[in-house]
Design a protein that fits this description.
Radius of gyration: 23 Å
Shape: globular
CATH topology of the largest domain: Rossmann fold
Strand content: 15-25%
CATH class of the largest domain: Alpha Beta
Number of helices: 18
Helix content: 25-40%
CATH architecture of the largest domain: 3-Layer(aba) Sandwich
Number of domains: 2
Strand order of the largest sheet: 3-4-5-2-1-6-7-11-12
Bound molecules: adenosine-5'-diphosphate
Structural class: alpha/beta
Distance between the termini: 11 Å
C-alpha cells in the first residue's frame, strides 16, 4: 500500500512544534511495517537544504502566483524515505518561521502558499506528476495540508483515500473570503457545508469536510473537540463527522529521545542506573546559573510560552513553588507578557529561577534529562509530546487532565501508588489554585525517595514508541 504524507514542517529541518516531530517519525514507522511511504513538503529553505539527493522531477507552473514551480524528489537523511519537495522560490524561499513574516504577522499570501501544497498532493495522487508512483492514501496533516482532500474530492476520477489529522484545532487556517478566487476551487464549495466558516475560509474545515477519515492525536482530544469548549466553532462539523473521527496517540521517536544514547547530555543513563541523571541535574543547574544542589526539586518547562500551555497559571503559582524551596527552569518562546513575567521572576530569584527565551533543541534535551519534574499545565493539549519525553527521561510530568495529557500520565494518588500505576502528577481545573495544590503534592513526594523512584521507574518503562500508533494508522488505511 502506498501512502503519501503531506506536512508543512519536519524535524530537524523545519520545526515550530510537535507536528514536525510527527512528520519525521510516523512515516518511517509505517515504512517499517512494510508500507510504501513518502512525504510531500513545501520547499522552505531548511527543507531544500536538508533533503538529500534532490533531483527535479517535473516543472509545473505558473501556479498560485509563483512563476516557477518545480517538484523535486529526494530522500530524508535520517530515515532514507523518499520526499517530494515543492520548489517554488517566490512562495517558499523565505527565512525564519514558516508561517510568519519578520513582523510576526502571517505572510499575506499564506493561502496561496499552502493551497499549492494541497494542490500538488492532489496531482501526485492523480498520477500526473510522478509516473512511477501513485499513492493509495493521501494523509494530510493540519490546516496547511487541509486543501489536499478538497482538491482530491473535486476530481471525480480519483479514488485515492484521504486521511486528515488534526494536530491542533486552534489553528484553523482562516483567510478572508476574497482569497477564495485564488484557490482554483469551484464556487459551489464556498458554502457553510464546504470551506466557508462564518464569513471566512478555513483550510482546517476543508480537511474536516472533504477527507474520508479524520484523526486527531489522542482519544481524549478526539472527544473534546466535539464540544463547544474545545471545538473552536468547528464542533458542529466534527459532530456531523463523528463516525469518521478517531484519536490515535502520537509516539516518541526513540532514536531522538533516549537517555541511554542521547548525545546532547554529558552523562547518559537508564532505568536500571539513574546515576547519570543526577549529574545531568547538577550540570543543568550550573549551565543555567541556578544554585547547584542535588536535593532541591528542579521543575522545568520546555514549551511555547502561551496561555494555551497554561504558562500564566504557572506564573501565578510560582511564589508557592519557590516557597517549597524548589527551583524552576524555563525554556521557551511565546507571548511577550509571559516571557517578561518569567524574566522578572528570574531577576528576583536568580538562584532558583532561570529562563532561557529561545528555541534550542539540544538544550531541550538537557532540560529533559536534568529536571526532576516537567510542567505541562495546558488549558488544552491535543497530545503533547514533552510529557512523553519526560517519562522516558525519568522526569515526572506534572500535567493538567486534558487531551493527550490525560491519556498518558497517571496521578501519584495513594491508590495509584499502591497499585504501582502512578507515572506523574495530574490536576483537574485550569486555575492556579489547582496547579498549586498539585505542585505541593509533587514536592511532598519528592521528599519520599522510595516513592519517587517507584513512580520514576514506572514512567521510564512505559512504551510510547511509534509501533502502536503506526499499527493503528495502518489499520485505518486498510479499512479504507
Ligand atoms: P506544541 O506542538 O503544541 O508546541 P508539543 O508538546 O506537541 O507542543 O510539541 C512541542 C515540541 O517542540 C516538542 O518536541 C518540544 O520539545 C519542542 N519545543 C517546544 N519549545 C521548545 C524550545 N523552546 N526549544 C526546543 N524545543 C522546544
Amino acid at each position: 500500500m502506498r501512502i503519501l504524507h503531506v506536512a508543512a514542517e519536519i524535524y530537524p529541518l523545519v520545526k515550530t512544534g510537535g507536528l514536525a516531530d510527527v512528520a519525521a517519525a510516523l512515516p518511517p514507522a509505517l515504512a517499517e511495517r512494510g508500507l510504501d511511504t513518502r512525504i510531500l513538503l513545501p520547499g522552505l529553505p531548511g527543507i531544500l537544504h536538508g533533503v538529500a539527493d534532490l533531483k527535479p522531477l517535473i516543472r509545473i507552473g505558473p501556479a498560485f502566483g509563483a512563476a516557477i514551480v518545480t517538484l523535486r524528489l529526494g530522500r530524508l537523511r535520517d530515515s532514507g524515505l523518499p520526499a517530494y519537495v515543492i520548489d517554488a522560490p517566490f512562495l517558499y524561499r523565505r527565512d525564519g518561521n514558516p508561517y510568519l513574516g519578520p513582523d510576526g504577522h502571517d505572510w499575506g499570501d499564506n493561502h496561496r502558499r499552502f493551497a499549492l501544497l494541497g494542490w500538488i498532493a492532489a496531482h501526485i495522487a492523480a498520477g500526473e506528476l510522478d509516473p512511477d508512483w501513485e499513492p493509495d492514501v493521501v494523509h494530510a496533516h493540519d490546516w496547511h495540508a487541509g486543501l489536499a482532500p478538497a482538491y482530491i474530492a473535486q476530481n471525480p476520477g480519483l479514488s485515492t483515500a484521504t486521511v486528515f489529522t488534526i494536530h491542533n484545532l486552534a489553528f484553523r487556517g482562516l483567510f478572508p473570503l476574497d482569497c477564495y478566487a485564488d484557490l482554483c476551487l469551484p464556487g459551489r464549495k464556498l458554502t457553510p457545508r464546504g470551506l466557508e466558516f462564518h464569513g471566512q475560509i478555513s483550510f482546517m474545515k476543508a480537511g474536516l469536510v472533504y477527507s474520508k477519515r479524520l484523526t486527531t492525536v489522542s482519544p481524549t482530544y478526539a472527544r473534546e473537540i466535539c464540544t463547544p469548549e474545545f471545538g473552536w466553532g468547528l464542533e458542529g462539523v466534527l459532530g456531523d463527522r463523528g463516525a469518521a473521527l478517531s484519536g490515535i496517540l502520537n509516539g516518541v521517536d526513540t532514536t531522538v529521545w533516549n537517555p541511554g544514547t542521547d548525545r546532547d547530555i554529558d552523562r547518559t543513563y537508564t532505568v536500571e542506573n539513574t546515576a547519570g541523571k543526577k549529574s545531568c541535574k547538577l550540570d543543568l543547574q550550573a549551565e543555567l546559573g541556578l544554585k547547584q544542589d542535588a536535593k532541591v526539586p528542579l521543575f522545568a518547562v520546555v514549551s511555547r510560552l502561551t496561555s494555551q500551555k497554561g504558562m500564566d497559571l504557572l506564573l501565578a503559582a510560582l511564589p508557592e513553588l519557590l516557597g517549597e524551596g524548589a527551583q524552576l527552569a524555563v525554556l521557551g518562546t511565546g507571548e511577550s507578557g509571559l516571557e517578561a513575567g518569567f524574566h522578572q521572576a528570574a531577576a528576583a530569584n536568580p538562584e532558583s529561577v532561570a529562563v532561557h527565551v529561545g528555541y534550542d533543541e539540544a538544550l531541550s534535551h538537557r532540560f529533559m534529562a536534568g529536571a526532576d519534574v516537567l510542567l505541562v499545565p495546558s488549558r488544552f493539549e491535543p497530545c503533547g509530546l514533552t510529557q512523553l519525553y519526560a517519562l522516558r527521561y525519568g522526569t515526572l510530568p506534572l500535567v493538567r487532565k486534558v487531551g493527550g495529557l490525560a491519556d498518558t500520565v497517571a496521578h501519584a494518588s495513594p491508590a495509584n501508588l499502591a497499585q504501582d500505576s502512578a507515572t506523574g502528577f495530574v490536576f483537574n481545573d485550569a486555575n492556579s489554585r489547582a496547579l498549586t495544590t498539585c505542585l505541593h503534592e509533587a514536592c511532598a513526594l519528592y521528599r519520599d525517595e522510595n516513592a519517587w523512584r517507584q513512580v520514576q521507574r514506572k514512567g521510564m518503562t512505559q512504551d510510547f514508541s511509534w509501533n502502536d500508533s503506526a499499527a493503528h494508522y495502518e489499520a485505518l488505511y486498510r479499512s479504507l
